[in-house]
Amino acid sequence: MASQTAQGPYSVHILEKKDYTKQHIVEFNEPLPPLAPSSVRVQTSLISLTTNNITYARLGHVPMFNWWDASPLPFKEGEYSNSEKYGRVNAWGIGTVIESTAEFVPVGTKLFGYHPIGTLPADKVVKISELPGMIDDISEHRKSLFPGYNQYYILGERDANSDKAQAYFSLFCVFFETSYHINRLSFSWEPSVGAVNPLGLEVPPPLDTWTKERADLKRAVVVILSASGKTALSLAYALRFLRPESERPRAVFAVGSEASRSFTESTKLYDGVLNYDLAKSDSSQVAEKLGLSAQDKIVLVDFGGRGDSFELWRESLRSISNNVPAIRMAESVPEHVQDIDEVNASFGSMLDAAKDTYVGNAFGMRNAGMALLGTKTYMTDFRNAFEGFMESHCVQCVKPMWGEGTSGATGVEGGWTKLTSGHVDPASGLVFRLT
Ligand SMILES: NC(=O)c1ccc[n+]([C@@H]2O[C@H](COP(=O)([O-])OP(=O)(O)OC[C@H]3O[C@@H](n4cnc5c(N)ncnc54)[C@H](OP(=O)(O)O)[C@@H]3O)[C@@H](O)[C@H]2O)c1
């Protein structure tokens, strides 16, 4: 068995399940067990934090997601062994293989994927993935997760040797992928794709009514809420650069807070940048600002617009035109921590199939893309598009803001506090080097 020694004590980032703003950095100082066959021991080296991590903590208990299962508490006794009260969320980032009994993953390999926060290594039973350049974590405790959370990219030499590349990979890869799918599958123009529901294939009624007509963006106007976020920027980029000119929407508008306006403008991806509050004014003002008429098709895409901005914008746009399909990729981050009943009620109402409103899921769409276009072709196309996106102006507008370690103001602890207080500058991508 090959190994690269990792010394304890290790840090473990733990959240209170009822209040994800409360975090505990706990030391783990027990010997690690022998590594099982066909396994790798992975130590997280670098992670990113975005509002997406809040989603993992807020909805970790929802049976569809089971995000608390990704990294169980490692303690067998004591306060932090209580999994009713405490849990760990993972983050997108890079892990280093420090021990291996799987000959296809040598020690030193860098894996991009969904890793635990802290320096405590995680053991994974692995197999070679059907996805090119990836391995699958097939550990028993992760079977309740969507497959996408168990798939890890093996970084090539160039990325494995560049801190900057790893930071951008961690900040953007999954979010770009999400919007790559929306653009190519849900707003499809390719006859072989048809129109894929934002949840993927085989969507149960009453959510199964996404049609080619809804997917058609020619001459449509797209309005994106929380437009400064990484998934939103990726969609605006894809709409502009990753579809034939004749299939592009007439205009794409950004909606966000005043605080994010100058950043959003700097990305040069949008035809206009508007404030959430505009939807509180008379809809004739909205129509005038966006150049809309009753004949227009207006597509509303929500990446977690603040407060009740989604409802306000949908109402306002629907009083201008009766052709306003809406896709919700996220709920807003609530201003106060909700109790579990409030969370469930709010998530349940998002899933309620309101007229012409659809919910989206990145990994449902990924599966659809692979089924319709072939796993290798689709994922290779996506990786090539991601390479191009990484070189784009909008990505360069986001500068990594480096932190070190799990604890302290400049570590993950400080980053989590900043993130959950709702004040991260969109121009700063939070990344943390852990080992
Ligand atoms: N359904 C899916 O499959 C899927 C896939 C990927 C992401 N998502 C979801 O999409 C959402 C966006 O994720 P992301 O990683 O792209 O976000 P991000 O880059 O962290 O987005 C940052 C922007 O979000 C806005 N925001 C609203 N509330 C915030 C808060 N409490 N704290 C910080 N920023 C806040 C801010 O813009 P303003 O100041 O202008 O509001 C901020 O500039 C998340 O909810 C994520 O879970 C869903």
The CATH C-level name of the largest domain is: Alpha Beta
Continuous helix count: 13
Low-confidence stretches: none
- How would you sum up the major sheet? 6 strands, antiparallel, barrel
Mean pLDDT: 96
InterPro entries: DUF2855 (IPR021276)
Structure description:
The chain is an alpha/beta fold. Helix content is 30%, strand content 24%. It has helices spanning 51-58, 157-160, 163-186, 212-215, 230-241, 258-266, 283-290, 309-318, 340-351, 362-373, 375-390, 393-396, 412-420; strands at residues 2-3, 10-16, 19-28, 39-49, 86-87, 90-100, 110-116, 122-128, 134-137, 151-154, 221-225, 251-256, 272-275, 298-303, 326-330, 357-359, 399-404, 428-433. Strands 4-6-7-10-9-8 form a 6-stranded antiparallel β-barrel. Strands 13-12-11-14-15-16 form a 6-stranded parallel beta sheet, sandwiched between helices. Bound molecules: NADP nicotinamide-adenine-dinucleotide phosphate. NADP nicotinamide-adenine-dinucleotide phosphate is lined by residues 50-52, 55, 175, 178, 226, 228-231, 256-257, 259-260, 303-304, 306, 329-330, 333, 360-362, 422, 424, 426.
